[in-house]
């Protein structure tokens, strides 16, 4: 484990990334964004890591969003604007990663913190956690993370969240598809571990191919999506692990993945 605003720890096949600013409600400072990006790069290059888990320090807040104390910046307008864009690059990097990601939502996930939850492939939250976009209450709008919110919710519910700033209890967020699981705090680690363990047991090569296809097809018109996915299926069939998986199924044995 290493000190910093983001802690990086390898636990078995998991890389655990922890936003470590509990006194600031794990807010997204420029340093946090930089360190999360570096941690993702590190996890991707580590062959022992098969799943990335993202969480916040403490038991109350996953991430409260952008650090308002650093919002104005002190390096000139254009430089500050580029710094803000780095959060958008971070959201995109989660989806470009070749390894699956799980958000361990240990508490409230608000504003840009909700964006991080949505950027992860799967999310498990504790009961009592709130999810929402309260920026409007301080005269701001959830601009960049809204791109992910639009892809998770229908227009009416997404607009209601960003226009009102209302918070959703975890159970309601689950019914809307923003989360995969909601569990008591005492069961959070076990639930995350079970989910991450399932992902770690799959072919990493096929997971990477499939995740990329999923996100690419999401933004294509239906005919183009189907044509693109047909090409990806042809690639998938040629993968070594596809042959191994089919052989294992026919031979009634567990597959031995080579991750290629």
Automatic annotation (TrEMBL):
Q: Which domain of life is it from?
A: Bacteria
The molecular function terms in GO held by this entry are: catalytic activity
Q: Which is one Pfam family of this protein?
A: ECH_1
Instruction: Identify the InterPro entries for this entry.
Output: ClpP/crotonase-like_dom_sf (IPR029045), Enoyl-CoA_hyd/isom_CS (IPR018376), Enoyl-CoA_hydra/iso (IPR001753), Enoyl-CoA_hydra_C (IPR014748), Enoyl-CoA_Hydratase/Isomerase (IPR051683)
UniProt similarity note: Belongs to the enoyl-CoA hydratase/isomerase family.
- Name of this protein: Enoyl-CoA hydratase/isomerase family protein
């Amino acid at each position: 484990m290493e000190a910093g605003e983001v802690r990086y720890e390898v636990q078995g096949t998991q890389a655990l990334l922890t936003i470590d600013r509990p006194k600031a409600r794990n807010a997204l400072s420029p340093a946090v964004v930089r360190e999360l990006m570096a941690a993702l790069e590190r996890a991707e290059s580590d062959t022992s890591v098969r799943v990335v888990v993202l969480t916040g320090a403490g038991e109350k807040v996953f991430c409260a969003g952008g650090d308002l104390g650093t919002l104005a910046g002190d390096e000139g307008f254009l430089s500050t604007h580029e710094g803000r864009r780095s959060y958008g690059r971070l959201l995109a990097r989660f989806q470009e990663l070749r390894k699956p990601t799980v958000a361990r939502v240990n508490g409230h996930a608000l504003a840009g913190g909700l964006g991080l939850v949505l950027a992860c492939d799967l999310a498990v939250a504790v009961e009592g956690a709130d999810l929402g976009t309260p920026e409007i209450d301080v005269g701001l709008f959830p601009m960049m993370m809204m791109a992910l919110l639009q892809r998770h919710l229908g227009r009416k519910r997404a607009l209601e969240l960003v226009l009102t700033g209302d918070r959703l209890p975890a159970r309601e967020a689950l019914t809307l598809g923003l989360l995969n699981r909601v569990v008591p705090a005492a069961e959070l680690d076990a639930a995350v571990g079970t989910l991450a363990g399932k992902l770690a047991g799959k072919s990493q090569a096929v997971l990477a191919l499939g995740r990329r296809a999923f996100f690419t097809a999401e933004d294509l018109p239906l005919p183009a999506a189907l044509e693109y996915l047909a090409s990806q299926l042809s690639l998938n069939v040629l993968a070594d692990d596809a042959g191994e998986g089919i052989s294992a199924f026919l031979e009634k044995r567990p597959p031995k993945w080579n991750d290629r």
